[in-house]
Structures are given as C-alpha cells and as structure tokens.
Amino acid sequence: MRKIAFMMLCSLPLFAGFFPQTVHTTVKSTQGNVLKLNAAFPAVGMSGVVVHNYGSDLAAITGRIVQTSADGSASVLNVEVLEHDALPTIKTTIAPNDKVIGGYLYENVLLLAPDADTYAKIVASEHKRWIHPDLYAVYLSAEGEEGVSKENLANFAKKYQVGLVYIVRKNAAVLLDPMSGKIISQKAMSGLPSNGQFPFFMRLEPIKSGWFGGDAITGNYYNAMEKL
Predict the structure, then answer these.
(1) How many distinct structural domains can be found in the chain?
(2) Which of 2, 74, 125, 176 has its CA 20 to 30 A from that of 28?
(3) pTM of the full predicted structure?
(4) Is 119 found in the same domain as 94?
C-alpha cells in the first residue's frame, strides 16, 4: 500500500499550486530533434521556446519544444515559431547554450467554463491575463470549425498568444498546454452546475455559421470538455 501511494505521489507535477511556474534555462545538448535541458520544467508536457543570441543585442525565437521526461529531456515541436507573413522564416538550428523559456506565455490563459458564475469565480481567484472565450468563439465561427479540438486550440493559441487553456470538466479542472496538446496539471472542483452552456460559456448570441447554429447548440458541455 505504501509503495502504491509513493508511486502516485511521484506521478504528480512537482510544483506547488495549480499553475506551473515559467522556467528560464539553457540547452545542455542536442541530438537531432532531441534535446537535454540544464534545468527541467516543472511538468512533463510543458512546452517552451528556444531563443538564440546572434550578438549585437539581436536575439530571436528559433524553435518550440516540449518536455518529454522529468529529467529535462525534450523534443522539438514541428510547428511554426511565429505566424506573421511580414516576418522571415527563421531556420537557425537549435544549439547548446541557447536560452530556453519553459512555460512561454503561461500568464495568458483561455478559460473554458460551463457558465458565467463559474467563469467569474475562477478569474477573480487567479491573477492571470485572461483571454475571454468570446474571442475563441468568434475565431471558431470565422474558421468554420465544427467543434472544440486540440488542433483549433493550438491554432488559436499561436494567433492570439495564448499559453494555457484552463478547462473546467465535471468535478475537476485541467490545464492544457495547447502547443504540446498535453494536460500538465489538474485539480478537483466542487459546486459546478449540473449542466453547462454548450459549447462553453460566452456572452455572444448564437452565431449563424459553422457549429454555432442549428442543432449544435444542444450538445453536452461536459462531454465535449472530456474529449480534450
């Protein structure tokens, strides 16, 4: 019994509280798309950015990574570093001693909640830069998306500089890193409504395009959040 309890304890993220802290470290070594960091991130699944110094006060983000092991092992994510047509594509190879920011933009959080009361309580309890779900709803409608998915959350996050997605599930809350697509933290929650506003709480009237019109508004909020 003690062994089982110890194993469960070891599987939990090694940081206090629900939100992991941003970590500043450097690349220790590289082998292809596999890296070793000089200091590990607080949780496996956390993403980060690699910053290369070109000298003369010139530095740029050259890659995105995700931690794959608690020992500081990481891999390079196959995603665009920056989405901006006016900026050149950076092709600098990640190298030892490059700076790394783990938990990049983690202060910018999109919250998906079942109702207005739950949303208000959460944003009042945490000092974050909250991205309102109205913006995400408009994005999905404009893109013609038919539902909430890890893929469109990742695209939205890159476009609007979102670091984390706070998802209220049935009796629990989880933090999704949209770049890695991994759940990096979770906690129990109580006092949640039995039914949630579908697809999630927003202040907008139903939008008559994509998945916001027709029968789509009758879906189950909690079922949709469990799939993320």
Answers:
(1) 2
(2) 176
(3) 0.87
(4) no
